[in-house]
Amino acid sequence: GIDECLDVWVRPRGKQTLTGPLTLRTSTSEGTLRAWTLHPAARPGRVDINPGTSSQAAAELSGPADELYLVLWNRRDITHTALTVTGKPGVVDSFRRLT
């Protein structure tokens, strides 16, 4: 579900731009880890998404996959989840405007 949301809704959005690299990291109750790093694309209004993490990310949003999924769809506010935000909060805010 997270892959689909990133590919269908986040990658092609044309009205907002991401202000810096952001890593999304999830974990499941089984301990499976998945990560995506989002970068502002050369083409305005688009986001490049790469699997894995980046040491150059300005911020990271991490936590349970189900909660990240709900945040991606704006079904839950980050402050009401077990998600952890590290790095520059402005990057996460610009990401929230994309979703």
Structure description:
The protein is of the alpha+beta class and 99 residues long. 27% of the residues lie in helices and 29% in strands. The protein has 3 helices and 5 strands. The protein has helices at residues 2-10, 65-72, 89-98; strands at 22-27, 33-40, 47-51, 59-64, 84-87. A 5-stranded mixed β-sheet has the order 3-2-1-4-5. The protein is globular, with a radius of gyration of 12 Å. The mean pLDDT is 78.
Widest beta sheet: strand line-up:
3-2-1-4-5
Rg of Cα set: 12 Å
Q: Beta-sheet strand percentage?
A: 25-35%
**End-to-end gap:** 14 Å
SSE string: HEEEEHEH
* Shape designation: globular
- Regions with pLDDT < 50 over 5+ consecutive residues? none
Give a count of the beta strands, DSSP E runs of length 2 or more: 5
- The helix-and-strand class reads alpha+beta
Number of helices: 3
State mean pLDDT (0 to 100 scale).
Answer: 78
- Fraction of residues in helix: 25-40%
Largest sheet: 5 strands, mixed
